[in-house]
Design a protein that fits this description.
Distance between the termini: 23 Å
Largest sheet: 5 strands, parallel
Number of helices: 7
Helix content: 40-55%
Order of helices and strands: EHEHHHEHEHHE
CATH topology: Rossmann fold
Number of domains: 1
Radius of gyration: 14 Å
Shape: globular
CATH architecture: 3-Layer(aba) Sandwich
CATH class: Alpha Beta
Mean pLDDT: 84
Structural class: alpha/beta
Length: 139
Amino acid sequence: MYKKILLAADGSENSLRAAREAAEIAFLVKDCKIEVVYVADYSKSKSAILHSQGKEELELSRREKLHQMEKELQSQHIAYEVKILHGEPGPAIVEYANKENFDLVIIGSRGLNSFQEMVLGSVSHKVMKRVNCPALIVK
């Protein structure tokens, strides 16, 4: 069964729905743990760093994007951990998921940047094609 779940998050409404689905699955499995993965996108990082007051503020702003998702998991009493990765979201999630041998990857169907998804292809599509474990896209 799914003991180790990777939940890809970006703070969007779809990633919050993915968190709800992950919580439902984890609730049914004894000793299941969710690892919430947020990718600090290199293409946006430079601007975020320039506009922040320091490393602590930058870290806080990233964690704020995940606040609702964390509240959802806490309310269900689900064991979880947050991991912040750096890089391009699709490849970073795939590399981490495959390296850490997750049982299931859960991701929202669309993230925060719908224009970029139209041009480059969605992160969820890239993840689905390349992870070595079952994956669930939540609409």
